[in-house]
Design brief:
The complex is a heterodimer of chains A (504) and B (375). Chain A has helices at 44-51, 74-79, 97-102, 115-129, 144-157, 174-189, 201-207, 230-238, 297-304, 327-332, 342-346, 353-357, 375-388, 405-417, 435-450, 462-468, 490-497; strands at residues 5-15, 18-29, 33-37, 59-64, 67-69, 82-85, 162-166, 193-198, 210-215, 218-224, 256-266, 272-282, 286-290, 312-317, 320-321, 335-338, 368-369, 372-373, 423-427, 454-459, 471-476, 479-484. The mean pLDDT of chain A is 90. Helix content of chain A is 32%, strand content 26%. In chain A, a hairpin with a 2-residue loop joins strand 1 and strand 2. Chain A has 504 residues and is α/β, with parallel strands linked by helices. Chain B has one domain (40-326): ABC transporter involved in vitamin B12 uptake, BtuC, CATH 1.10.3470. Helix content of chain B is 71%, strand content 0%. Chain B has helices at residues 10-36, 41-53, 56-81, 89-106, 112-141, 145-164, 171-175, 203-220, 222-232, 234-239, 244-271, 287-297, 302-326, 331-357. In chain B, helix 2 crosses helix 3, helix 4 (89-106) packs parallel to helix 6 (145-164) and helix 8 (203-220) packs across helix 9. Mean pLDDT of chain B is 85; it is low at 1-11 and 359-375. The chains are: A alpha/beta (504), B mainly alpha (375). At the A-B interface, strand 2, helix 10, helix 11 and strand 18 of A face helix 9 and helix 10 of B.
Chain lengths: 504, 375
């Protein structure tokens, strides 16, 4: 029986030392899109994992169509018609679409596969909801947007009529997002219930019927989307007024600090990822690089700072050739780097807050002399950084992996900015970071730029790029397709991100 | 943000508790085996304790056995902290002992005040060189150090056997055509000083000193900081401007150097000559491998290795007496040793799993997996 209503009643979930959900009440009905809004760590994922049978609630109950149910595993949730589309796709890349859809299901032909039947049904579902994918295509050959459709098809194929979508737009271009919203509307019109998890306010505003906001594990508000606005939602989410647009003093751009000429680099698969990219960043300006993830931005940043082999072209800092310099030499040259892969490259997870804060400067006096640490000096230095950059940590000895993403990022920011760099390369500085920390990071980046640092900002978040940059370069398939002013519309940037050349 | 009251923080103390629980369980399983062998486990263990700690001589023997384990174990800690797995303790002990032997035999005219430090230094350098080879191969050619150190063990033992059967063989043994694969006895003035009138020599003090120095190196110097950074995360280390390969080589070189020093102490303090009993490991008594167990038991912390090596020294000494007291085969020692390894290693994995499971439930999702699109 299709789902009419699903209710979460008084759900609490306790982890040792943390109350992730605190008496949460939530309901969703057939034919509506419910947005679940909240910062990282607000308890959205935990709540949805409970609904999908991955966690058991400490207290409370779940009712489907008025009947109380107990889920021991996701299989139980699926049997009740609840499907979840994870942010990170659960697909086998070497399998076809049909094989992925059939994976884990019983075949109608016993031990033999029935992929033709599956393909047929996939085509029918695709036609019904606009989820067009070739059932015989291999998943790894599909674009990200199409892989996402396969995930939705998997759920629909299993007769799910409540779909939980965990940050589904994070990997899509603005155009793909529009297309995706079309699919969601069709799913709603066909009588499905949808829960849309996001922290992007404009998307929530654009697609949902109702919004429920979580903060610190509690429901802090539920409103009809019509009756609210982004500002109010942001305030509910963070618990205070949020500044989304910074006062940005006019750029006082001076001499070129970072000059990249015809730079080439390969990605991890040894395929060309950066193809003759040329850029100049001047002291006192933010050059934003917009683009869909995976178009060479990460490789560009890593090549510039010496983390990746340069296969051609040159890099200059303040006029000095630094091509092929090691990361240590780049640090000496005054280049700071906030890496995209923050948990892998930016910090040593097992190290304490203090140890991470001195990752780059630990050999400099007064932190150490003749290889011996002066822990009093280290603690003074780190305590100052933590205070100045508002890093929320129980102590300086806390392993950094226990901090939230936003606080880890603020720690990295503190470490990199406190070196007074000439050039700052910030890759996805606010991805996965909560609104409060994002706001703070934006403020600091602008301050840094106004203080005369040349900032290269790489971001997938167009709002961010437009808000911070003095110029925007759009990157597509390893090339710069154009450099435009920050006033350029989202639509135009979107087209460029999809590869349309800027004719100029 | 937490509303639960803090209970006893098991995680904070488990680095001490877990090895002991594991050791206890190993002894329990050992008891079952003793019982199956037809002996009384309680009697056997009482006999073991007496054999290990029952008299000043027994205690001294236990400490003497602990010596090489301590040196190797501290070395294993340094390598491990640098992210290098050193299985080459055996070979490094052997090469260290060989280097010491060469120095002692060729410079035997020097006074002990110069000769002893020089001979110890030779052991240190020899073992370091042998470990450094594996480090160089890893950093330069990405050769897995587990494989290379095991191979180097075999090479070292063969080299020693070759030399003991030729160039280094005791001249008197050659004259009498007995041909025992051992050197002549070292000059008396190279014997490490005895601490009390037993077999206990000053090597154990050197070992404790080394453990303390290793602790200072790892946690109070920038060099140790870099070794640990590289051990945890090579990518972040490179990002921080650390020459990853150099610190990997340094970690295993130091590790080998300490094993080599252990070898030097063993020949100068206990045997007073280099010999091989023809086994796969020569004279080392498996200290190169047992040192790994000791390091694990000591929570891979140099200071933890001090008590861990004493415990294992006692275990080995006590187990030797088992054969005499309750007629359990001597091979039982090896069995018990193996049981301890299994339980300690398993408990480490268990403790780590437990720690992960109880960690914060929500990590920012983008940090876990890179979306398929970013390649």
């Amino acid at each position: 029986m299709p789902i009419q209503t699903v209710e979460l009643r008084n759900i609490s979930k306790r982890f040792p030392g943390v109350l992730a959900n605190d008496r949460v009440n939530l309901d969703v009905r057939a034919g509506e899109i419910l947005a679940l809004l909240g910062e990282n760590g607000a308890g959205k994922s935990t709540l949805m994992k409970i609904l999908y049978g991955m966690y058991h609630p400490t207290e409370g109950e779940i009712a489907v169509n008025g009947q109380v149910v107990q889920f021991k595993s996701p299989a139980d949730a699926l049997a009740q018609g609840i499907g979840m589309i994870h942010q990170h796709f659960q697909l086998v890349p070497g399998f076809t679409v049909a094989e992925n859809v059939a994976l884990g299901l019983k075949s109608s032909r016993g031990p033999l596969t029935d992929l033709n039947v599956v393909s047929q049904r996939v085509r029918e579902l695709g036609a019904q909801y606009g989820l067009h994918v070739d059932p015989n295509a291999l998943v790894w050959q599909l674009a990200v947007g199409q892989q996402q459709r396969v995930e939705i098809l998997k759920a629909l194929y299993r007769d799910a009529s409540l779909l939980i979508l965990d940050e589904p737009t994070a990997v899509l271009t603005p155009q793909e997002v529009q297309e995706f919203f079309g699919i969601l509307r069709r799913l709603r019109a066909a009588g499905n219930a949808l829960i849309f998890i996001s922290h992007k306010l404009y998307e929530v505003k654009a697609i949902s019927d109702r919004v429920v906001v979580l903060r610190d594990g509690r429901v802090v508000g539920g409103v009809a989307t019509q009756a609210t606005n982004q500002k109010e939602l942001a305030r509910m989410m963070v618990g205070r007024e949020v500044i989304t647009q910074w006062e940005k003093p006019a750029a006082q751009a001076r001499e070129t600090a970072l000059q990249i000429d015809k730079l080439q680099a390969l990605n991890d698969k040894q395929l060309p990822a950066v193809k003759e990219v040329s850029l100049q960043v001047r002291a006192g300006e933010i050059l934003g690089i917009a683009g869909v993830s995976g178009n060479g931005q990460r490789e560009l940043a890593e090549a510039v700072v010496g983390m990746r082999l340069i296969r051609g072209g040159s890099v200059r800092v303040n006029g000095k050739d630094v091509t092929h310099h090691s990361p240590a030499q780049m640090i000496q040259a005054g280049v700071a780097f906030i890496p995209e892969e923050r948990m892998v490259m930016g910090i040593v997870r097992e190290f304490s807050v203090a140890e991470n804060a001195i990752l780059i400067t630990h050999t400099e006096p007064p932190l150490s002399r003749r290889a011996l640490f002066d822990f009093r000096a280290v603690n003074t230095h780190v305590a100052r950084l933590v205070r100045e950059y508002d890093v929320r940590t129980p102590s300086l000895e806390t392993p950094v992996k226990n901090l939230s993403g936003g606080n880890i990022q603020k720690l990295i920011l503190a470490r990199e900015l406190s070196r007074s760099p000439r050039v700052l390369i910030a890759a996805q500085p606010t991805r996965g970071v909560d609104i409060g920390a994002t706001e703070y990071i934006h403020k600091r980046l602008i301050e840094q730029r106004s203080a005369g640092t040349a900032v290269l900002l790489i971001s997938e978040d167009l709002e961010e790029v437009r808000a911070l940059s003095d110029r925007i370069a759009v990157m597509y398939e390893g090339e710069i397709v154009g450099i435009v002013p920050p006033t350029t519309s989202v639509e135009e940037l979107g087209l460029m991100m999809a590869g349309a050349k800027k004719d100029s | 943000m937490s509303t639960t009251r803090q209970r006893f923080d098991f995680g904070r103390y488990n680095f001490i508790l877990v090895p002991f629980i594991a050791g206890g369980l190993a002894l329990l399983v050992g008891a079952v085996i003793i019982w199956l062998l037809g002996a009384n486990p309680i009697e056997a263990y009482i006999g073991m304790v007496q054999g290990a700690l029952g008299s000043p001589n027994a205690i001294a023997d236990s400490l003497v056995k602990a010596g090489p384990l301590l040196f190797v174990g501290v070395g294993i800690c340094i390598a491990y902290r640098g992210g290098v797995i050193n299985i080459g303790g055996e070979g490094q002990i052997v090469i260290g002992a060989l280097a010491t032997t060469l120095v002692v035999l060729t410079l035997s005219g020097l006074p002990s005040l110069i000769l002893i430090p020089l001979a110890l230094a030779a052991g240190f350098v020899g073992g370091g060189f042998w470990g450094g080879i594996a480090g160089f191969l890893k950093a330069r050619f990405k050769v897995n150090e587990v494989l290379s150190t095991i191979m180097l063990n075999a090479i070292a033992v063969q080299l020693m056997t070759f030399l003991l059967n030729g160039a280094l063989m005791d001249p008197t043994s050659l004259d009498n055509s007995i041909r025992i694969p051992q050197t002549q006895r070292f000059p008396l003035w190279t014997d490490l000083p005895r601490l009390i009138p037993t077999r206990l020599h000053a090597g154990i003090l050197l070992g404790v000193l080394i453990a303390v120095l290793a602790y200072i190196l790892l946690w109070h110097t920038t060099i140790g900081y870099r070794i640990r950074a590289v051990g945890f995360n090579t990518v972040a280390s490179k990002y921080a401007g650390i020459n990853v390969g150099r610190y990997q080589i340094l970690a295993i070189t130091l590790s080998g150097a300490l094993a080599g020093l252990g070898g030097a102490v063993e020949v100068m303090g206990v045997n007073h000559r280099l010999f091989t009993d023809g086994s796969a490991t020569g004279f080392t008594g498996n200290a190169g491998f047992n040192g790994i167990v000791v390091a694990l038991f000591g929570a891979l912390h140099p200071l933890g290795v001090i008590p861990a090596s004493f415990l294992f020294g006692a275990l080995l000494t006590g187990a030797n007496t088992l054969q005499r007291t309750v007629q359990v085969p001597g091979a039982f020692v090896t069995t018990l040793d193996g049981l301890v390894v299994i339980f300690v290693v398993a408990s480490q994995i268990w403790a780590r799993r437990r720690a992960t499971r109880h960690a914060m439930p929500e990590l920012p999702p983008q940090d876990k997996i890179v979306p398929a699109s970013t390649t």
